[in-house]
Amino acid sequence: MRLSEYCRFKPVTNGERLFQFLILNVIGKERASSLDNVSLIQIGGRTDDFADYYAGIFASNLMMRCIKKAKWIDRTDPLHADNNALERHKRELVNYFLTSLEIPKNSLGGNLEQLANYVIDAYRSSKKDITHTVRKQFKRRPDNCYICGVSIDDSSQADQNYELEHIWPQSYGGDSIEGNLLPSCSHCNKEKSHMLLWQNSDVSSFVMMPQAEPHELRSIHKSVRIARHRRLIFEYACSNKLTLKEAAVAIGSVELASPKYIDKYDSIDFYNIKFF
Ligand SMILES: [Zn+2]
């Protein structure tokens, strides 16, 4: 998927708004297209996939650095310390964009302040946990884990298996709101952890021999399956202009279907498996 296409899904959280702003206005459409055509990797038959890999790693790294910087500033100078704290934070962030991130001053004009606002909003969202009111919206609703499909039920307080999963990770500014949450089993929630894009998972070193046996395919680590599922969700949301939650619901879970290979003559890696 082209980097600029990551902006076609419908954002519902402050983290998603920051992400799309970074791609469209900071990296910029021109640079995003350059990243999509990294000439160095035009060998090996995975050109588009690896271009997507590097672009995703770059975008998510940039985003997390912005949020961590805002967190660090807030620690050293709490936002609510006085009325001028917010303005000081913005100034410090703008300085960070110019010096450490090396965003050219002229490229964004007044948008550096706008970027600082997006970063602060995403940082604030990352601090807010799920409230009782939001949790109640999901209460007493037997459901299936949206990732692996296993049946989960929150009707029993003792059932520790039921968790609400942030579709856009909380650490990346994913708000704890109904539109960004879906029930998942604790195993999937733990495995997905802070995975933002499939690129955040350890997918580059996974390679099996061609025509792997069904039991070998079933042994593919859960984090790789979750990453593949995540890629499907993004692609579906972007091509249909949906929220990630709408796309996740439309696609359904993947664990119950055994992965299959696409090209039987090639080794099996992250790009050579499918679930459907
Ligand atoms: Zn699950």
Overview of the structural elements:
With 276 residues, this protein is mainly α. The protein has 2 domains: 3-127, no CATH class; 132-274, no CATH class. Helix content is 48%, strand content 8%. A two-stranded antiparallel ribbon has the order 1-2. Strand 1 (143-144) and strand 2 form a beta hairpin. Helix 9 (222-240) packs across helix 10 (244-251). The model has no long low-confidence stretch (mean pLDDT 88). Bound molecules: zinc ion. Zinc ion binds next to strand 4 and helix 7. Zinc ion binds at residues 145, 147-148, 150, 184-185, 187-188.
Order of helices and strands: HHHHHHEEEEHEHHHEEE
Low-confidence stretches: none
Q: Please give the radius of gyration in angstroms.
A: 20 Å
Number of helices: 10
Please give the order of strands in the largest beta sheet.
1-2
Total domains, how many?
2
| Distance between the ends | 19 Å
| Total number of strands | 8
Fraction in beta strands: 5-15%
Q: State the helicity in percent bands.
A: 40-55%
Give the mean pLDDT: 88
Oligomeric state, counting identical vs distinct chains? single chain
Overall 3D form: globular
The structural class is: mainly alpha
Bound molecules: zinc ion
Largest sheet: 2 strands, antiparallel
